[in-house]
Design brief:
Two copies of one chain form a homodimer. Chain A is an alpha/beta fold. Chain A has nine helices and 13 strands. Chain A has a seven-stranded parallel β-sheet, with helices on both faces. A two-stranded parallel ribbon of chain A has the order 7-10. In chain A, β1, α1 and β2 form a beta-alpha-beta unit. The longest helix of chain A is centred in the first third of the chain and has 21 residues. Chain A is globular, with a radius of gyration of 19 Å. The N and C termini of chain A lie far apart (39 Å). Chains A and B meet through α3 and α4 of A and α3 and α4 of B.
Chain lengths: 324, 324
């Protein structure tokens, strides 16, 4: 990212965003984080805030006027702000539409009005729906959406691609598997840890526990994004990012239980899926990003253990967690 | 459509919508048209308005309260209201987002709140972007969007599929090629006719004239939709609808010129595409809909001639046409 001096990060106080902010500061960039702190956390920016190359703007991506004013003088935008949880879309279908689709439109428009052309976007493996081909490549058959989350992210991808075609933007669209690591604060591993903390003897698992999921450790994820940004020549660059393996939900539970030295009795809500729209098998083909020379340094086991260790050492993240 | 008594049609005063309204009345359905008359036309409903099974509500799909109130007591919703022109997205990128994506969300929510579960949706072959596989099947490789129009329709598809998965809706998503016939009032054939009317001696064609496009005649299109609705068993039913042929833009111009007995000197704006985001080759694989027994009765030539004949006999459509 040698040609990039000024980086703007929406959702920069969140899990992925704040880790990217730290990384960009390490690389010597000027970094502006734009976050409404709805799910982001100031404590994730403690280190960044001490760096004089860092600025923080408290703002909402659904506030196009503030966004347009805040985004000026940047070379590159990481658009990470999102409703990042695939599970609760059906409770309030407007949330994904607003926070993922309309928000992405607002970011693109703020960029266009400020003549900023480069965007990195956190999409998701959920855009593949229940893929027929596993591991699923970027050019898998035209997917059918099974979640409002996936649909809203796919809509974001479509907007970004159209801006590349129409306004000469350059984009990096990253389809993540589940991301793990320090500052992970939502998702089913978070829930497992929290449930075991409340009741170490028994835990209910959504679905039959045999759902197969792939993950990637946050630092590997960031490295892969930088690889893609440095080595891509197209205007629209779409990459699956993930580990070259997957595990069953039951295995995740086992790793967490072992780490906590617990042996909970497991019960299951039943069925192949953990929730409506859950994809019982997510495993992405990552040949494309690997062809650039990238390789993960952490397998899924390590990623889970680092995550649980961090949660264990940062109990404050469970305070004020009223959602569950 | 034997089980369906009450049909609600958004954009029901438009080209496709008003023809579907007439057809549904012919089939004995109660029909409610919901249209804001931004591009729809009251004259298209002249016959329908004389039928006591017909109701007209002047309303905007971006008015969710009126929409929710208006949609009650229907069994089936044809959602046709849209910004239907792929060409002008870049002039105002908000238009496609609002009129195609957010509008579709509003329709789905109005349906959900009224416990209406069946939706037919006018998507587009533009969702395939510049497809690698031609003719392009429904399960073509994951497309990259090249137009805001295609992106906004794909976003609509994603929302609809998610509602099928999450709220047990049943949907028919129709990916049209260009639709031709009576009441056709926008698109490049409309422009050609209008240009030749203004200047019969000379005409400028966008692109190099060699763009390949497929079309379908409106009555064939409606028949194919009814086939799909009657014979589909899945919750999410996605169909390409089009003729089993394509022609070059130059051929369309020739057919129109011959019909008008003109021999204009043609000039070209140049390039493979007519406009940014134009797809220089649209031809859809329609094996899926044909497997249900459907077959078109009109080829593209006939469709174009019927269109031009109708325009010729309905000069009023060019009045108040301030756009071009």
């Amino acid at each position: 990212m040698n040609n990039i001096d000024n980086v703007f990060i929406t959702g920069g106080a969140g899990f992925i965003g704040s880790n990217v902010a730290d990384k960009m500061l390490n690389l010597g960039k000027n970094v502006t984080v734009y976050d409404n702190f709805s799910t982001g956390n100031r404590r994730f920016l403690e280190k960044a805030l001490k760096n004089n190359k860092f600025s923080l703007i408290e703002g909402d991506v659904l506030d196009p006027i503030l966004l347009e004013k805040s985004i000026t003088n940047n070379d590159f935008v990481f658009h990470f702000s999102a409703n990042a949880d695939v599970r609760f879309g059906l409770e309030d279908p407007k949330r994904d539409l607003e926070q993922n689709t309309i928000a992405t439109y607002n970011v693109l428009e703020a960029m266009r009005k400020n003549n900023i052309k480069n965007i990195g976007f956190s999409s998701t493996g959920s855009v593949y729906g229940e893929a027929d081909i596993i591991p699923t490549p970027e050019n898998a058959p035209f997917p059918i959406q099974t979640s409002l989350y996936g649909a809203s992210k796919l809509a974001g991808e479509g907007l970004i691609s159209s801006y590349c075609e129409g306004y000469n933007f350059k984009s990096w669209i990253f389809r993540f598997v589940g991301v793990l690591g320090e500052r992970y604060t939502h998702g089913h591993l978070f829930d497992f840890y929290q449930k075991l903390k409340k009741n170490p003897l028994e835990m209910n698992v959504l679905g039959n526990g045999k759902q197969k999921k792939s993950y990637i450790y946050i630092q590997d994820c960031i490295e892969s994004m930088i690889y893609a940004i440095d080595k891509s020549v197209d205007n629209i660059n779409i990459y699956n990012l993930g580990c070259d393996e997957y595990i069953e939900v039951n295995d995740s539970v086992k790793i967490i239980s072992d780490f906590l030295k617990l042996d909970p009795k497991l019960t299951y809500s039943g069925g192949k899926k953990g929730w409506v729209g859950d994809n019982p098998f997510i495993y992405l083909d990552t040949k494309k990003i690997r062809s650039l020379g990238w390789k993960e340094n952490n397998n899924i086991d390590t990623g889970i253990i680092k995550t649980i260790k961090w949660l264990h050492e940062n109990q404050w993240v469970f305070e004020n967690d009223s959602k569950k």
